[in-house]
Design brief:
By secondary structure, the protein is of the alpha/beta class. It is about 40% helix and about 15% strand. It has a seven-stranded parallel beta sheet, sandwiched between helices.
């Protein structure tokens, strides 16, 4: 039995669907419990332990998180409850009830000054989102060192609405003729959630053969700024983007500071047998937007 937390979210949905192909999987959600997903408040320790005791998982893939940097900065208390405290409890429960915990973290644990980053490089998050995810990592490794932490970059994929992804939302931005400045400063490595889900599936298959633990990175290799993503969407959709002003300067007063380049090295993940093979960004969106 595998439990996927945050299974109604962009990544959690893809992980739930991928793992359900060959495993018994229970997906949890809090606000969006459509379909077969079960409601679970991860900030309620009693309910979480009852859920674990009832379902007896061998593996828990912890995708649930507050992932929007600006939201994290404006609600630090709520962010800590979900990103840190719930992760700490799952780590303790993984030892108590003998299941493997796979925790999804972020490239934002790094400051962007010395890319590419190996899993062993020292984190130095610039915003509260990155800090909270790194605190979650530390709590997990302290209480359950046999856990797996998988850091991933900015994600895109099939969405219920474009705002689910910081990449997909750019389609709405270019479709609106309102003039806007667009980030042409920060290098990103947009990665498809289906590729991440497949990597997690491969990790779980490997766990049947040998124990794997510690920190790993998964990322696509294509480098682009958000403005360059908009240029690609402009080509695919034949939409003029003259209303976008590319800004190659760091934001003056951002709510949550973003690092300039947090490229993740995938060498360690490949060394344990997980091939990092990601779909081409433009090719995927050409097919997706043609539907």
């Amino acid at each position: 039995m595998i439990i996927v937390t945050g299974a109604s979210g962009l990544l959690g949905r893809a992980v739930y669907e991928q793992l359900s192909k060959n495993n018994a999987v229970v997906g949890t959600a809090f606000s969006r419990t459509e379909g077969s997903l079960l409601k679970l408040d991860l900030t309620n320790p009693t309910k979480v332990e009852e859920f674990i005791k009832a379902h007896k998982p061998q593996i828990v893939v912890h995708c649930a998180a507050e992932r929007k940097p600006d939201v994290c900065a404006s609600d630090e208390e709520g962010t800590l409850k979900l990103n840190v405290e719930s992760s700490k409890q799952l780590a303790k429960l993984s030892v108590q009830y003998s299941f493997k915990l796979i925790y999804i973290s972020t490239d934002y644990v790094f400051d962007g000054k010395k890319p590419p980053y190996e899993p062993e490089d020292q984190p130095n998050p610039l915003n509260f989102y990155g800090k909270s995810k790194y605190m979650g990592e530390q709590a997990i490794l302290e209480h359950a060192p046999s856990s797996i932490i998988l850091r991933v970059p900015i994600l895109y994929g099939h969405t219920l609405f474009n705002a689910e992804s910081a990449v997909n939302i750019l389609i709405d931005v270019i479709s609106n003729p309102k003039p806007v400045e667009m980030d042409h400063f920060q290098s990103r490595f947009p990665t498809n959630v289906q590729d991440v889900a497949l990597a997690i599936s491969k990790i779980i298959d490997l766990l049947k053969q040998k124990d794997i633990n510690g920190v790993y990175h998964f990322s696509a290799k294509e480098r682009m700024t958000k403005y360059e993503m908009c240029q690609i969407f402009s080509e695919i959709l034949n939409i003029n983007i003259d209303h976008l002003k590319p800004n190659a300067e760091p934001p003056k007063d951002p709510v949550a500071t973003r690092p300039v380049d947090v490229q993740l090295s995938t060498k360690k993940l490949e060394s344990v047998g997980v091939v990092v093979d990601c779909v081409n960004f433009k090719t995927w969106f050409e097919k997706s937007l043609a539907k």
